[in-house]
Queue: 2 jobs
Job 1
Amino acid sequence: EEQSRLLRDRPDQPQNPKALRIAIIGAPNAGKSTLSNQLLGRKVFPVSQKVHTTRCKARGVVTCEDTQLIILDTPGLTNPLKAKRHKLEEAMLRDPWDSMKHADLVLVLVDVSDHWTRNSLSKEVLKCLSQFPHIPSVLVLNKVDLLKKKYILLQLVTELTEGIVNGKKLQVRSAFNHNSSSSAKSLQITRASPPENRAHKPHCLQETSQDQQGSSSNDSSDSRASRSSLVAEAAQGPKRYGPRDRKNMKGWPCFQEIFMLAALHGEEVDTLKRYLLMQAKPGPWEFHSGVLTSQSPQEICDNIIREKILEYLPLEVPYGVIQVTEMWEEGPSGELLIMQNLVVPRKSHMMMLIGRGGKVISRIAQEAGQDLMNVFLCDVRLKLKVEVKS
């Protein structure tokens, strides 16, 4: 009731409000929901190692002093063939595009730990960016902590940006030591002449002068070997890219900034958050300052239970589970009592979901209940039933 009231009422406005709507797009399982949760400071979006955990567009709200960030957590960009294979709703094809239409800034997330996909943006992502070239875009390289060879990041930056960032041509001046084990924080991408109107230089884009100061006599030979820079040269401004242009493109040459982080552990997420807050423009807030997400408590509950089902069931099985909430009420001591029925298409699926001796369904209920307590900040008693679709 409190959540419904906050969403229904007019937002409380500070004296000089600022706002920014951010669309996070990328391939399935790139870490979009994990990043959204880290920016929000609490887990409100489902996260799983399986693709297509996020099934619909949801908004998260970050309110900091006079600034409000609206985070549009969207399903991974996919095509109709893959959508049919995973029994995905039509909304999953439509929602990322709808989010782009209303965004002031777009974050393109790339999983650098996936060596099969990291060297190029997907066709769906490139198509989405080319349809909205007027919306500023930022490249976010995620899961950098999983890369043992940090010099690979330089190659990825060049490929994913087509060698151009913020209208400047990038050129590798020196290569990383291939045996370097330096962390992502020591990786410096420098530009000779950043634009004067930039209000904030992100951690991962530092000026050449800083790089030169860092290479003093105190530097060890290892740190000198692992130092590299990308020097900017004049380049033509952004243009529209049609289907023919995209055929030969691996990256997007219109990114304004590049960030490198590990969303799961929160590394460098604060740097990105500060950058986003500084990009906000004067304008009214969309939500009350007490709102954390546009989702209803029931939707959050459904998402968290589905997350656990995805974790513990094999292959395509979880995508056929239908969730039906049969009870949602407050108990005598103020605890939240939830009973949900999980409907599966086959008896074999039911046996897998229950598990031997009921171990699987018990584990799902226990872990989902704990997550719900952390979200709702109250005691939660969750009961799950499983039945075959009649």
Job 2
Amino acid sequence: GAGLANLGNTCFLNSVLQCLTHTPALANFALRGEHKKYKTGGSFNALYEIGEHVARALNSSGRTIAPTALVKNLRALSKTFRKGRQEDAHELARCLLDAMHKKCVEVVKPKISPNSARAETSFVWKVFGGRLRSQVNCKTCGRNSETFDPFLDLSLEVGRAKSVLGAFKMFTHTEVLDGDNKYRCEGKSANSKSHLTKASKQFTVNQAPNVLALQLKRFAYVPFGRGKLNHFVEYPLELDITPYTSDEGLTSRGKAVYDLYGVLVHAGNSSNSGHYYCFVKVATGTWCLMDDDEITSVSEKVVLKQQAYLLFYARR
């Protein structure tokens, strides 16, 4: 693929674009011209423009290209973005995936909501979409309550985690709701139909996505602004999240095992400053450092020693 010109503090965009460009399913989608089916007139079309960018980048190996259309339309992704200002790469990635998904849904007739169950058949959803299950168990009446939330990426707390697997373990640990955070149960009790009671709550991955995009939450609010957690968090080449899934999420495809293909890094102490770059596994199987217009081959050992901010895994 091509290197990307920095058009004025656009390293946050460039690093995300390189990770998306080397997402195999998205690369195939663009190279086959599938994105052209979604071309519409009028307002900015994130899905079409990403398809055009990916196809152009993969057909321009050894050269540098400028992601001009995406830089010009940053505010179409979020009104908080400002051209020429450093932005948060995770926020950009999330807004970009949301916009691409909504464009997939817009062309469906009759019209459907981007949050509807039917919308989960869109191309973007098939690649990045997953579902979380939240289960609450009332300790008074034994009633179980379940809710399901869709996601295109997952954010993991890493303040007390030494590894991604450790962060997943904390994310899915069973929380006891007691004291000030007691659970209001709507089940039967001796006194009333609704009662505050002790309960347990647990998150699990109910539907494992084909591409697992992870944010390691390094930025935290501190008294004088937004600080950063700079400690190393171990992440494997092969990630097995099977222990953190609910049984329903595994019935159709077996274990949820993933291979690493993208590592996005932030250098600096604030999300509004510093520099972003990434490491991606290209089609030949080689790992490359992609730092704006510079592309350099690196070893797996180098890749696995980074202070990762975003991680991209492809399911086997």
